Amino acid sequence: MTKYGVIVGSIRKNSFSQTLANGLVAGLPKDAEVTFIEIANLPLYNQDYDADSPAEYTRFREQVAAQDAIIFATPEHNRSVPAALKNALDVASRPWGENIWAGKPALVASQSLSGISGALANHILRQSLTFLDMPTMQQPEVYIANSSELLGETGEVANASTAEFLKSVTQEFVTFTNKFVK
């Protein structure tokens, strides 16, 4: 059984990114173990905490370490990733030399209310994941534009063809993950 961690870049209740994540998880095998890993409660990363980390850091690092693969679903904030998501990346990659992310296959999916579909956030996140030594699935790419129409705020994907697309992406991610997880 493969363990999939899901990180939602938006910390807003009923976010479109949460719905995007739910749509991706729907395509995972029935025996997959899925853990949504919360990032909203993480204090801002501070190198001063490396010697004595806050309990939230320790708990988060343990949750990430327990996963075989990670699914990221993110909005775009000011042409980049949300601050909470960047903070989560930093927390689990520090102290220097203790990068918890390394070697975990990753799927990146972005969404936006506009037609730009979070493309910049998607690629900025991919750059960080490259540095963090996470093999990241390259194809198919997931950019969801007009998320209020396609995803909705109910927690379930509102558009049937979008839901099918997300399930097919996740099935590709399972195949990708199996190349790295034994």
The level 1 CATH classification is Alpha Beta
* Number of contiguous helices: 6
Q: Domains counted in the coordinates: how many? A: 1
How far apart are the termini?
10 Å
Number of strands: 5
The helix/strand series, from N terminus to C terminus, equals: EHEHEHEHEHH
What value does the average pLDDT take? 95
Assign an overall shape: globular
**How would you name the CATH homologous superfamily?**
Flavodoxin domain
Low-confidence stretches: none
Short characterization:
The protein is α/β, with parallel strands linked by helices and 182 residues long. It has 6 helices and 5 strands, in the order βαβαβαβαβαα. The radius of gyration is 15 Å and the shape is globular.
Question: What are the key terms here?
Answer:
globular; Chromate reductase; 182 residues; 5 strands; five-stranded parallel sheet; 36% helix; alpha/beta; Rossmann fold
What does this 3D model show about the protein?
- By secondary structure, the chain is an alpha/beta fold.
- The protein has a single domain (3-178), classed as Flavodoxin domain (Rossmann fold, 3-Layer(aba) Sandwich).
- It has helices spanning 16-25, 55-65, 83-91, 119-131, 147-150, 160-178, and strands spanning 3-8, 33-36, 69-75, 106-111, 142-144.
- It has a 5-stranded parallel beta sheet with strand order 2-1-3-4-5, sandwiched between helices.
- Strand 4, helix 4 (119-131) and strand 5 (142-144) form a beta-alpha-beta unit.
- It is globular.
- 38% of the residues are buried.
- The mean pLDDT is 95.
